[in-house]
């Protein structure tokens, strides 16, 4: 899940009266460089920021340090009904 998607999920959770558990995707250091305002985990509790909207902003200057890799990841495999594996 992207940091933006994670922030959206956290905001929805906090607005839901019967909310109970939120999975935490484990956000790496690179994500904290590329995005500001990402929800944080402290002492077992998740916190969102108090900025307007989702509060997550992209730091475009940091993107250059993390170019996209042109490779197909194993999770893009699709299993057909006959159990054969299909790659994009």
What report would you give on this structure?
- The protein has 88 residues and is of the alpha+beta class.
- It has one domain.
- It has a two-stranded antiparallel sheet with strand order 1-4.
- A hairpin with a 5-residue loop joins strand 5 and strand 6.
- 9% of the residues are buried.
- It is an enzyme of class 4 (lyase).
- Its EC number is 4.2.1.-.
- Keywords: Lyase.
Number of helices: 3
Mean pLDDT rating: 85
In whole angstroms, the N-to-C terminal distance is 21 Å
Shape: flat
Strand content: 15-25%
Spans of 5+ residues with little confidence (pLDDT < 50)?
A: none
| Whole-number count of domains | 1
Helix/strand/pairing category: alpha+beta
Descriptors:
88 residues; two-stranded antiparallel sheet; 25% helix; 16% strand; lyase activity
Write the layout of secondary structure elements.
Layout (H helix, E strand, L loop, with lengths): L2 H12 L14 H6 E2 L3 E3 L2 E3 L9 E2 L1 H4 L14 E2 L5 E2 L2
Antiparallel strand pairs: 1-4, 2-3, 5-6
In short:
The chain contains 3 helices and 6 strands. The protein has 88 residues and is an alpha+beta fold. The strands form 3 sheets. A two-stranded antiparallel ribbon has the order 1-4.
């Amino acid at each position: 899940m992207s940091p933006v998607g994670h922030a959206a999920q956290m905001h929805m959770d906090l607005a839901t009266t019967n909310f109970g558990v939120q999975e935490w995707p484990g956000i790496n250091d690179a994500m904290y460089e590329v995005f500001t305002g990402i929800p944080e985990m402290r002492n077992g509790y998740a916190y969102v920021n108090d900025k307007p909207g989702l509060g997550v902003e992209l730091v475009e200057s940091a993107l250059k340090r993390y170019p996209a890799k042109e490779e197909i990841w194993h999770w893009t495999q699709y299993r057909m009904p006959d159990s054969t594996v299909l790659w994009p």
